[in-house]
Design a protein that fits this description.
Organism: Schaalia cardiffensis F0333
Low-confidence stretches: 250-254, 310-319
Number of domains: 3
CATH class of the largest domain: Alpha Beta
Number of helices: 9
Radius of gyration: 24 Å
Number of strands: 11
Distance between the termini: 39 Å
Helix content: 40-55%
Main location: cytoplasm
Subcellular location: Cytoplasm
Largest sheet: 8 strands, mixed
Strand order of the largest sheet: 2-3-1-5-4-9-10-11
Order of helices and strands: HHHHEHEEHEEEEEHEEEHH
InterPro entries: PCRF (IPR005139), Pep_chain_release_fac_I (IPR000352), Pep_chain_release_fac_I_sf (IPR045853), PrfB (IPR004374)
CATH architecture of the largest domain: 2-Layer Sandwich
GO cellular component, one term: cytoplasm
Length: about 375
């Protein structure tokens, strides 16, 4: 069946118009100009952390602007290619074959770009802090937690996003009890928040000498990183702070001072551990920031729960188990909310999870729209 290029191109332009209405290139240009002024300030690097935030934000905003401009240019190029085919009958078949390939690539790329327009939550633009905890399943669960950590770090690497592992707690035999890391990218929280929930792995256990099938679980928590404009004051009287020596796998000493920090928020029982930084002061500051982020999310959830109660909305939240990774007796990764699936678990574990994330974002937006109706 011949492709109707004019209709396809018109559809792409309509989608891009929707994207541009949300992305607002002029707003981006204004932000870039402001960040460029800050980046050229002579005292910029007096505060390295603030300087890093400015240069990173500038790079991300410029990349986002370049991406939408280039996407519009690619549609123009496709249209010109189709017109060229009409003017050159001898080369038409070859040109149209190339145009068809470009059309399919454009559809996929614009679909990914369109996902960004669905991220309109209060904290969606922020960096994300992800915590992975092993659940039921013993050593297999600890190993699964480490597999998930690698999966998300590889996903970030594929996209060129900076990551920082903030805390790791190793299990005795293999794998991780828990790990916390930050993803530094625009809309990292909005994008990765659909990964929150319980993940399930089914496989022949490499730790079982009888080769039995084992089901294990790991929990993924995603929170937005606190910003200086947020107001989450925590009185010292509500904090319990313990210091201890950082350690790696098998208890190997990472340093010889008690620099790691465990911070407990007494009223809620929330506990945050940090050991990645070199000093106790740095770890304390990092732990406080993550604790504030979790309290911010808690406050937001309580506000939303109150609104639902007042509105009479008693719909259940997401189920505990949101995705299954099955390696035995067949191979499949399937999201139980969206029904999106992949028959290549190894590719998924190597960070190929955009399909799952995009399907999750669309599913969440549909759920939100249904709740508003």
């Amino acid at each position: 069946m011949a492709i109707e290029f004019p209709e396809e191109i018109q559809g792409l332009r309509q989608t891009m118009d929707n994207v541009l209405a949300v992305v607002q290139p002029e707003r981006l240009r204004s932000q870039i100009a402001e960040l460029e002024k800050k980046a050229t300030a002579p005292d910029l690097w007096d505060d390295p952390a603030a300087a890093q935030e400015v240069t990173s934000a500038l790079s991300h905003r410029q990349s986002e602007l370049d991406r939408v401009i280039r996407m519009s240019e690619r549609i123009d190029d496709l249209e010109a290619m189709v017109e060229m085919a009409g003017e050159d009958p001898e080369e038409a078949a070859e040109i149209l074959a190339e145009a068809e390939a470009d059309l399919e690539a454009l559809k996929a790329d614009i679909s990914d770009l369109e996902i960004r327009t669905l991220l309109d939550g209060e904290y969606d633009e922020r960096n994300a802090v992800i915590t992975i905890r092993s659940g039921a399943g013993g050593v297999d669960a600890a190993d699964f937690a480490e597999i998930l950590l690698r999966m998300y770090l590889r996903w970030a690497e594929r996209h060129g996003y900076a990551t920082k592992v903030m805390d790791t707690s190793y299990a005795e035999e293999a794998g991780l009890k828990s790990a916390t890391f930050e993803v530094q990218a625009p809309y990292a929280y909005g994008t990765l928040s659909v990964e929150a929930g319980t993940h399930r792995l089914v496989r022949i256990s490499p730790f079982d000498n009888q080769g039995r099938r084992q089901t294990s679980f790991a929990a993924v928590e995603v929170i937005p990183l606190i910003e200086s404009t947020d107001h989450i004051d925590i009185p010292d009287s509500e904090l319990k702070v313990d210091v201890f020596r950082s350690s790696g796998p098998g208890g190997q000493s990472v340093n010889t001072t008690d620099s790691a920090v465990r911070m407990t928020h007494i009223p809620t029982g929330i506990v945050v551990s940090m050991q990645d930084e070199k000093s106790q002061i740095q770890n304390r500051a990092a732990a406080l920031r993550v604790l504030q982020s979790r309290l911010l999310v808690l406050r937001h959830e309580e506000e939303q729960a109150k609104k639902k109660e007042l509105a009479g909305d008693v719909k259940a939240s997401w189920g505990d188990q949101m995705r299954s990774y099955v390696l035995q007796p067949y191979t499949m990764v399937k999201d139980l909310r969206t029904q999106f699936e992949s028959g290549n678990p190894q590719s998924v574990f190597d960070g190929d999870i955009d399909g799952f994330i995009n399907a999750g974002i669309r599913w969440r937006k549909n759920r939100h729209n249904e709740a508003q109706n």
